[in-house]
Amino acid sequence: MRLFSILLFCLFITPMLSARDLVAQADSAYRAFNYPLAIELYETLDDANKTAEVYIKLADAYFYGGYELPKSQQEAMYLKAKSALELALEKSPSNPDVYARLGQVLGQIALFRGNKEKVKLGLQIKAYADKALELDANHAMAHAVLGIWHFELAGLGFVERTFAKLLFGDVPEGSYEQSAKHLAKAVAQNPNVIFYSTAYAKTLLKLGREAEAKQQLEIALKLPLIVAGDKQNKRESRLLLADI
């Protein structure tokens, strides 16, 4: 029924809307966590009206919409988000928002790949985040991407790291200290993102800084939902807090 309503809207309502109205309707659907409708509306725009900003919004809708789907359908959504960001990059090659999001999206795509591909994507993720920070040293998402990157690398076991070195000759070092540094900056720059506070708390716990971790988790639980995935982020925060 929901899909039928979306199709009906797009077939009969969207032809009467201007590009500005379409974007406004899509933005409204996105804020309401109606990612299928947001995607349909952004995609309805003709090429001339698909600016870098629109492609970024479309990528976000695919990305966060992927969280709402069964795991078997998620990778396709993340790949579509990546494609949208690559089109955004063509229109705005010096946009730090695009580079940071490419790092974020590749991080999710890596979850569906084998070890060799994961290592390769990991190097690309860092390169995208570094480029975003080169363009904007205070970019919250870029710092978050690097924070997660360091967290994951720091957690690699001896066998995994040896395997990666055999494939690529060398693997950058990651540390929980660097993870905390970047995630602290992400939280400072954008304190309203639940995921940043939750990720920062996880790193602080690895460093034995339980009081600070507890504070971040309590903050996360008080924040309003921004994307549908924040429901899961809050559940994780509650579980972490209960274990402290």
Commentary on this structure:
This protein has 244 residues and is an all-alpha fold. It has three domains: 9-93, Serine Threonine Protein Phosphatase 5, Tetratricopeptide repeat (Alpha Horseshoe); 113-188, no CATH class; 191-244, no CATH class. 77% of the residues lie in helices and 0% in strands. It is built from 13 helices and no strands. The protein has helices at 2-12, 19-31, 35-44, 52-67, 71-91, 96-110, 115-135, 140-154, 158-168, 176-189, 194-206, 210-222, 230-243. α5 (71-91) packs antiparallel against α6 (96-110), α6 (96-110) packs antiparallel against α7 (115-135) and α10 packs antiparallel against α11 (194-206). The longest helix has 21 residues, at 71-91. The chain is globular, with a radius of gyration of 19 Å. It starts with a helix and ends with a helix. The model has no long low-confidence stretch (mean pLDDT 90).
The CATH architecture classification of the largest domain is: Alpha Horseshoe
How many E-type strands? Answer: 0
What is the CATH domain class of the largest domain? Mainly Alpha
* Helix/strand structural class: mainly alpha
- Average pLDDT, to the nearest integer? 90
Sum up the overall morphology in one term. Answer: globular
Strand content: under 5%
- From the alpha carbons, calculate the radius of gyration and give it in angstroms: 19 Å
Helical fraction equals over 70%
SSE topology string = HHHHHHHHHHHHH
Sheet with the most strands, sense and barrel status: none
Distance between the termini: 44 Å
Unreliable spans are none
Kindly report the oligomeric state of this protein: single chain
Number of helices: 13
